[in-house]
Amino acid sequence: MSDYTISIPDSLYQKAQQIAQQKSLPVDEVIRTRLEGAFDQLLFDLPDDEKEELKAMAYLSDDTLWTIAREQMQPALEKRISELLTKNQRGTISTAEYQELEELVERGDKLTLRKSQAMKYLTERGYSISLDDLKPADE
Q1: Predicted structure pTM score
Q2: To 5 degrees, how large is the angle CA 113–CA 67–CA 126?
Q3: FRET partner for 129 with CA separation of 20 to 30 A, picked from 47, 64, 72, 121?
Q4: Is 54:94 a contact under the CB 8 Å cutoff?
Q5: Terminal-residue alpha carbon distance, the chain
Q6: CA–CA separation, 27 and 25 (whole Å)
Q7: Dihedral Cα 94, 100, 106, 109, nearest 10 deg
Q8: Rounded Cα–Cα distance for residues 61 and 50 (Å)
Q9: In terms of Cα–Cα distance, which of 110, 103, 41, 26 is closest to 71?
Q10: Helices vs. strands in the chain: H and E counts, helices first
Q11: Is residue 1 part of a domain?
């Protein structure tokens, strides 16, 4: 775990202090727990199987997490999304194409979420991540 210094309003610190006293916990633990809860809330709206998959990533090796963090959508799929988005903007998209677009966007969203979760775990393990680190290994 790393130590960081952040500035928070006195009123927020006082609330954390009250909770800490009520629960007989250190203030920093109360703040850390609340922050974790806030970040985990982002997973709240996901289906249970997706939540479990993202949580299970915590047990993956660093190398596997780096592989996930570097994943990219296939260029053909990116091109198809672009074509469908253009058709949608022009109002010329068919019902089947719109459904395909929704499915491709959902795939992209899931990929982004997996990549983000992998980066979260890598950061928690002490890695510093830059954009250059996220380029696919074959580039």
Answers
A1: 0.65
A2: 80
A3: 47
A4: no
A5: 32
A6: 6
A7: -90
A8: 19
A9: 110
A10: 6, 0
A11: no
Encoded tokens for 58: 């915590």
Please check whether residues 74 and 84 belong to one and the same domain. Answer: yes
Contact residues for 127 (Cβ-Cβ < 8 A; gap 6+): 62
Q: Which domain holds residue 27?
A: 8-45
Distance separating alpha carbons of residues 49 and 39, to the nearest angstrom: 18
Count of CB atoms situated within 10 Å of the CB of 54: 21
Nearest to 45 by CA among 109, 100, 121: 109
User: Could you report the per-residue pLDDT of 44-100, keeping only the tens digit for each?
Assistant: 677 888 888 988 999 999 999 999 999 998 999 999 999 999 999 999 999 999 999
Residue type (1 letter), 6 = I
What are the tokens at 48? Answer: 């249970």
Reading the block at residue 93, the tokens are: 């998209």
